[in-house]
Structures are given as structure tokens and as C-alpha cells.
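Course assignment 3, question 2. Fill in each field.
Student: A.L.
Task: Predict the tertiary structure for the chain below.
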Amino acid sequence: MSSAYATQRKMTHDFRHHIAALSGMLQGGETQQAQDYLAALQEQQTERALMVNTHNSAIDAVLNYEKHDYIFFCARPEFDGYHNFAKTLREHNKNARAYSDELNRRKIK
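Answer field:
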């Protein structure tokens, strides 16, 4: 969930920057430049739901659910607390093998 929070913080930062840029253009009478800037932002915008931050990671995970086609997940061999997700058993077995190999390399049973 920490990556989701970092993403939300970045989006908030970017949003404030865009508002300031648009405000500056409009105050300077640069209406066409502001319209062009806004059009570019609209093209870049993807469908995103607002992230909910209740400060409870389990509740946040449910409320910020994203639809996906993943069936499998496996801890990452980097041991960074994240997971690799897979849509097929073949992909999952590859991820599981990499994780198992790392466990063996670290002599973790």
C-alpha cells in the first residue's frame, strides 16, 4: 500500500502544479496557451478513481480495489514486501521458481 500512497502524493503534487500553471497563464491573459495546456492534460488523463486513505491498509485495499485479470500472485524474489502477479499458470510458475531459487540462494528453508 505504501506505493499507492506515494502515487497519491505525486498525483496531488502534480495537480497543484497544473493548477498553478493554468492560473498563471490565465492571470497573464494567455487564454489560448491555457486552453492548449488543459487539452494536453485531458489527453494524458487516464481513468483513475480517487484513492481513499483511511489510514487502515486493509480497508484502503478494499476501497481502492482495481479490476484486473490476475489470478495468481507470488512474493517477489527481491524480498521487498511486494508481489509479482500473473494471469497464467505458466507466468506464475516462472515467478514462483524465481522466488524459490532466491530462497535457496539465501539458504532459507
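Instructor remarks: The chain has a mean pLDDT of 85. Strands lie at 72-75, 83-86.
Grade: pending
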